[in-house]
Every structure is written in structure tokens, then in C-alpha cells.
Write a structure and sequence with these properties.
Layout lengths: L11 H7 L7 H15 L3 H5 L19 H11 L5 H9 L6 H17 L4 H13 L10 H18 L7 H16 L5 H18 L2 H13 L5 H7 L5 H8 L18 H6 L7 H11 L2 H10 L8 H13 L5 H19 L6 H13 L2 H10 L10
Helix pairs in contact: 4-6, 5-7, 6-8, 7-9, 9-11, 10-11, 16-18, 18-19
Length: 386
Amino acid sequence: MGTVSKMNTYSPDFIYGLQSKYELTDELLIVFEGINEMFKTSSQYIDMKKRINLNVKWKLKKKEDITSLNIIFNALNRLCTTNFDTILEEIKGVEITTALELDKLSQSIIDKMLHEEQFIETYVALIYNLIVAGRWITSESTFRQVLMDKLHNIYELLIKDNSDQNDRSKERGLFKIIAKMFKAHLISKMLISNLMDNQQLIYESTNNEKYMENFIILWLAYPEYKEDYITSIKETISKRLQFMLMDNEIISVVPTVYTKPSIEYTNYIVYMDEYNTVQDMIIDVGKNGNYIQFMGVVLRHTIDHSKDINLIIKIIKQGLSMKIWSKQDIFAAIEHIKTVELSDIVIDAPYYKQHLDRIIKDFLSTEKQDKEYRYKKGKYGNKSVR
């Protein structure tokens, strides 16, 4: 038996110590090529030659090859509940500037949710936090708009393919995504109720159980809607669907990352008279709460307190002055309210859209528009915009 040539060994810690975070370095390349050269002199080489292609060269990864999308995809592959906060901050720091990048990213997240159903809730929490943080608003669209368009396209394709041969697991996953996005306040009541109506009509015309299953998945997220209907059909559906109605795990509790604020931020606004200045009130909020959550409450305050619009304008102005939030933060929050919540709100507060428009005009418009608005501002006086 031939002798095996002495070979240097390199521990994993040594090799990993030579790597940068995502690149194959020149130094590590030399180590790998050195191992190949030593292996050529060993008695194992002839037996293994057919299995090894020595002509393959390690290709150095250039820094410019590490795109924003690659960084995000790498982070998504590591995402789990235990490292959620770390991964969220990592992804939030990446810039997406083109419509193509936004399209690829949205498709990747949807694909992951459809194929990793057990992590849908985690991905929805990620989506919510990214949208609230105002991430990825390009000149053509926003992250939320692209995401919703893609979900709509998938839904349309599944509806058109009403045969039993379509991908049932994908269809079920889609409705679970919609349900959990509704629970996370990313989808409006109007949209989810329309989808429920649609599934009900198809079920009643086809008697195909899968449409009732889709309906139940949505209903578990929004049980206030169609409660009488569920009661009326409960005894006529299969035992499996009856069990679904009792199964609280299908639509589990919304994670704490996107639950409504536990602090009663509204009280700070309602009892504003107890503070000497708006600044004093904002400083007090900072001692106990989160300024981004507070901003969301401020922007929604006039839904129930219509006469406080001028106070809200003062709070937003002071918050911008103190740099506790940015114009981008406010724009992202208003865009979220307008696209998700407004259709439900205007039924009870028809003036609320005017309030949002005024905030945009006061703080987010161009300098020219600002001058024009200041010129006309007298018409508002000290009265609320109704």
C-alpha cells in the first residue's frame, strides 16, 4: 500500500477567519489551491482523479456582484423568529431604488411564504415593519403596492383555474397569507370581505368544498363578518370544515411585532392642556413609548376627534423640528393609511381624507406648493377642516 503524503490541515475556524462576510478572499483562494496541489502528490489522487475536475478554478466574487437584492435574499434565508429583530434591521438598511429590484424582491417574499407556510406569520411581520418604516418607495411604485399587485395576480390565476388539478397547497397558502396580512392591518376590511363574498358565491354555485375552506380561512381572521352565515351552514358542511371552524391554530395570534401599541398614546393628545408646550408632551411620550407608534396614533387621531386637526398639525410640526420622525416616515404612514384603511374609515369619518391631504400639503409638498398653500391658508383660520 502506498504511503499518503503529509498534508497540512486547516480547521474550520482558521478558514472562516480568512473569509470576509460574503466573499471568497484571495488569501482563502491560495489556501484552497494549496490543498489541491498537496492532494496531487498523495496516493489517493489516482483513485479520485475521475471524480475531481482540477480545471475548475475558484471564481472570486467581486464586490459589485454583491447587489442589494443578494444581501436581502441572504438575510431572508436566515430569517426565523429568534433572530427576527436582527434580520429586520439588516434588511431595513438596504436600499432598493429600481422597479425591477422591487418586483424581484416582492416575488421572492411571496414565493417563500407560499412554500414555507409555517413561516407566513414571520414574513408578514417583516412586511409590516418594512412598510411602517417607509422602506422602498421608488418613483414608479411602493413596496406595498407591488406586493399587493402580485398577490392579486396570483389570486386571479387561481380563480381562472377552478379545476381540482391546480396547486391546492398554493391556493390554501395564498388565502392564509391574505388572512394574516389582514390581521396585521395590511389589508382593509373591504378587501377581505369582498374576497369572502367571492368564495361564498363560487362555493354555492359549485358545491366544491375547497371554496368553503378558503372562505373559512378568511373568516377566522375576520369573524365579525358573515357570522350569521357561518351559523346557518355550520351543520351542513363536512366534519373536516367544522373542525377548521374550531381550530384556533389556523389563524394564530398576531405576533407582538405588529400588535397595536399597548401604551394609550391618545391620552397624551387628549390631555395636552396639562403640558406647558407641545415639546414637553412629546418628551414625555419618549420616556414611556415609541415615537413611530405615536406618529401612527397622531395621524389617526382626528378620525374620532375631528376638531383637533390644528393640534395635530402642531404636533407633527414639533416632531419634525425635534427630528423624532422624518417627512419620509410621515409619507409612508399616510400612504399606508390611504391604501389600506381609508376605505373603511371614510364611512364613519368622511372628512378624514381632507385631514390627510392637509398634512401632506403642509409638510410633504414641494416648496412652490408650500408657498401657494401659505397664501391660501387664511381660509382655514382656527377651524377644523371638515
